[in-house]
Amino acid sequence: MTSPTDYRFLKACRGEPVDATPVWFMRQAGRYMKEYRALKEKYSFLEMCQTPELATEVTLQPLKPLGVDAAIIFADILLPLEPMGTGLEFIKGDGPSIPRPVRTRKDVENLRPVNSEEQLGYVGQAIKLVRQEIEGKIPLVGFAAAPFTLCSYMVEGGKSSEFKITKLLMYEEPETWKLLMEKVSTVLIDYLKMQVAAGAQALQIFDSWIGCVTPEDYREYILPYCQKVMNALKDLDVPVINFSTGTSSMLDVIAQAGGDVMSFDWRINIDQARDVIGWDKPVQGNMDPVVLFAPIPVIKKRVNDIMQRVGGKPGHIFNLGHGILQHTPVDHVKAVVDMVREYKHGG
Ligand code: CP3
């Protein structure tokens, strides 16, 4: 039994020295695993998220085979959309779809407040069940979207490449945009607090698509709401990971949002990123998920390169720069865990 204060992952989040670099993966549960695909034959993705016993089973699936240092609750950043009233569907092969997108002042005004305990309580239930299973072994990470990323789905009605409708709402109707961000931030804070009350021991805030805006737009239209969410989580006494992709050129601005750990993608070397945000700030990352498809010697070279750039300085959590992709070979993922764990600095 390891005491929660001694979990490698949580120590690294606090910038404390560790016996080995902690390693886990975003989307470590999912379609690349046969156990997940088998369950998916019987249940839809939303059913799996909304049934605590199934969400627990999926959360646990990768833990033993991979030997990772953290679990992440099986859920989705879009789940709060259902109680907010926009609807939410996952269409096979096409990803998420929001039947009633939010595009006008009236749409924003009509969004419903959310009581997470009541309306998203199934996530809390799953968190409680997972904690019972992993107690004394590894910690459990809870998560939500950051305000922009969630709003982008609400406004676009699904995934987007240009985020044109979202940006135009920002530019043409800044007051409507601000009301939307305000409402979404309030929901996210309540949802994240509920997860910690249920037993989440760290939180990750996914600003997956924020890399599409300019630094100045970020400052004006987005940063205040990210800060609001991060500030509201300060009293909870759990580390918060500020995750984004495509933000290599604006990490200094993203860091102003707050969070205990900064997580970024592979478009910047990890030591250069630490030069920008300061080496005292714990970091998570940052291997390209596609490298996991490469031959083992190539993977090893990339893992070693990241480890070497960090140079054994405290406050590093090994992860990818984004989630594990479909069809990724499971044995390659496991190999990365072993490589990180066995890595000797200066050796
Ligand atoms: O990391 C984990 O293991 C926890 C589970 C998790 C899922 N989604 C499960 C999932 C997490 C942390 C997320 C977050 C999430 N969801 C994000 C942020 C992270 C990121 O990737 O940037 C985003 C943008 C979403 C929205 C979302 N959910 C999309 C775009 C899709 C479809 C993409 C795809 O791969 O088809 C989903 C569905 C989804 N969420 C799946 C899983 C395992 C696939 C569902 C399936 O078909 O089985």
Structure overview:
The chain is α/β, with parallel strands linked by helices and about 350 residues long. It has a single domain, classed as TIM Barrel (Alpha-Beta Barrel), CATH 3.20.20.210. About 45% of the residues lie in helices and about 10% in strands. The protein has a 7-stranded parallel β-sheet. A hairpin with a 3-residue loop joins strand 2 and strand 3. About 45% of the residues are buried. It binds coproporphyrinogen III (CP3).
Highest CATH level, the class:
Alpha Beta
| Helical stretch tally | 17
Structural class: alpha/beta
Looking at the structure, the CATH topology is TIM Barrel
Q: So, CATH architecture?
A: Alpha-Beta Barrel
Which key terms come to mind for this protein?
347 residues, alpha/beta, TIM Barrel, 7-stranded parallel beta sheet, two-stranded antiparallel sheet, 9 strands, globular, binds coproporphyrinogen III
SSE inventory with pairings:
Elements: H1 8-13, H2 34-40, H3 45-50, H4 52-60, H5 63-66, E1 71-72, H6 81-84, E2 89-91, E3 95-97, H7 105-110, H8 116-119, H9 121-134, E4 140-145, H10 147-156, H11 164-172, H12 174-198, E5 202-207, H13 215-233, E6 240-244, H14 251-255, E7 261-263, H15 270-277, E8 283-287, H16 296-310, E9 316-320, H17 330-342
Parallel strand pairs: 1-4, 4-5, 5-6, 6-7, 7-8, 8-9
Antiparallel strand pairs: 2-3
Helix pairs in contact: 4-9, 9-12, 10-11, 10-12, 11-12, 12-13, 16-17
Coproporphyrinogen III binds next to β3.
Offer a quick outline of the entry.
The chain has helices at 8-13, 34-40, 45-50, 52-60, 63-66, 81-84, 105-110, 116-119, 121-134, 147-156, 164-172, 174-198, 215-233, 251-255, 270-277, 296-310, 330-342, and strands at residues 71-72, 89-91, 95-97, 140-145, 202-207, 240-244, 261-263, 283-287, 316-320.
